[in-house]
User: Which sequence fits this backbone?
């Protein structure tokens, strides 16, 4: 009878240890995510930002402005980055009108890396970019950081 009592106690210890380990992992992940969310990318209009989102990136070129507009939904733009993010998975499709410049591709790549500008003007693009908190949280764990 004593052996079954010890087994029962040992099982309860493992349950507590597992629960505490899970809580510790959750707290560490939350702290890690909080550290990244305060970051800015200073020269996003001219240089690559750190790749926080770690999305699979696919680039598609279009010869027709009408086709691009139907995909991107903005008649003013010559490119867009469409991101789909789920837990531990991110895909980013960049759509560009031919011919596309290197700065335009860099701009869209920075969106795929998880960054956003505030406003739609050259002045807004030149200001520091912020991380898109919703995408980063939806992504789950941040690989490589």
Assistant:
């Amino acid at each position: 009878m004593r052996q079954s009592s010890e087994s029962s106690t040992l099982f309860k210890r493992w349950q507590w240890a597992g629960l505490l380990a899970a809580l510790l992992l959750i707290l560490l992940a939350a702290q890690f995510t909080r550290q990244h969310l305060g970051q800015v990318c200073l020269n996003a209009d001219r240089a690559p930002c750190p790749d926080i989102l770690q999305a699979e990136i696919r680039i598609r070129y279009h010869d027709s402005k009408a086709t691009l507009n139907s995909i991107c939904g903005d008649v003013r733009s010559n490119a867009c980055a469409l991101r789909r993010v789920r837990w531990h998975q991110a895909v980013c499709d960049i759509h560009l009108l031919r011919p596309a410049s290197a700065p335009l591709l860099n701009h869209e790549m920075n969106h795929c890396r998880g960054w956003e500008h505030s406003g739609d003007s050259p002045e807004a693009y030149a200001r520091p970019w912020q991380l898109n908190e919703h995408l980063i949280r939806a992504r789950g764990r941040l690989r490589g950081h």
